[in-house]
Amino acid sequence: MDALQQRDPEVAAHVTAELQRQREQLVMIPSENYVSPAVLAATGSVLTNKYSEGYPGKRYYTGNEHVDAIEQLARVRAQKLFGYSHANVQPYSGSPANHAICFALLNPGETLMGMHLLYGGHLTHGWGVNFSGTYYHAVQYTTNADGWLDYDAIAELARAERPKLIFCGGTAYPRTIDFARLGEIARSVDAFLVADVSHIAGLIAAGVHPSPAGHADVMMTTTHKTLRGPRGAVILCSGEPSNPLKSAPRTRENLPTLIDRAVFPGLQGGPHDHQTAAIAVALGEASTPAFTTYGRQIVANARALAETLLAEGCTLITGGTDNHLLLLDVTPHGTTGRLAAEALSRAGISVNANSIPHDPRKPFDPSGIRIGTPALTTRGFNENDMRTVGNAIAAVLKTPTDNVTIERTRQTVRELCAAHPLYAELAGV
Length: 429
Ligand SMILES: Cc1ncc(COP(=O)(O)O)c(C=O)c1O
What we know:
alpha/beta; Aspartate Aminotransferase, domain 1; about 45% helix; globular; binds pyridoxal-5'-phosphate
């Protein structure tokens, strides 16, 4: 930061202000987190200077001996942590990774099935304006009226539509996903099952959510959410890769070759080696007992928050949570998702407006908000803290336009942040 400060004080000032914002707010967007100083160091390392198109041992440039070792470490750590025998750690992020998976496994126009965006799925699982809903015939499953996945309905849709690929996993689903059941459904129609566990990968690594290994043919995760790594993604599958430059039939045995070939040279050029190194560091951290403690605490914190909000009369979709996030219908308080998120933001609590299942409102100003506990858990918050946070959130939801409540909540937020300092080692920034 000293170098940045000297060379470009304008950018340095914005970075410093962002650090301050992260320190002073309760970050409760479920997909955000705080990476360790070691992950930050790897992300900002000299690896950003290198070009290394290809894979370890098969590069198009020289000078990759260190990059090869780092990528190999990341691959082996991912394989071990998630129980698959092949890992591709090069996707630039989650959306390109899902793009690569579709490119690997489908011809344009073929059918894919995924969870509807407005019911908690992701854009890249078949949403109309996204590549996945444009180049493929996308069929979307929803939840039942109470917000739970309805596995019988998913099985019926799969039988009717015969998709070649089924995505599971989402962005706003507060309950455990039954990968075993989804695996049966996919096999019954001879589809590939792709588990996009971007949101819950850290919980899987910590053993507090079932793993898709053994059920899903392909697992994809972003590395920057509960897994607490840099921005990036990993695709896992099982088997031995052969030459990614040669085409291979779309069989389960060929998955490693198909995926590798789709990532490079199919979609990407040179991998982001600084990201790969930071992914290796994050995966190393995710293999420690401390990470298991963190994963358990995320879930314990989400439960404590859910109990507090329910006791305060808030409406939780599915009535609670099994994982790191809660989805609230805020319309019973006479407000909307957008107004509620803005009021909470004024009070120093950062959440996002979110559609709820069967939402009568439009996505731009939906009925709900989505709240998560990963970042606060990283900061050291426990169940008691979450009860304080829950009471503060409920107070704002009930009177979102009352400045006295907003100011009182800001004060509570200040006290909580002071009790849980963030990035104390970056004090000199
Ligand atoms: C389930 C899921 N898949 C994929 C993505 C896409 O990841 P990225 O934003 O890194 O492209 C996200 C990010 O929100 C996600 O939640």
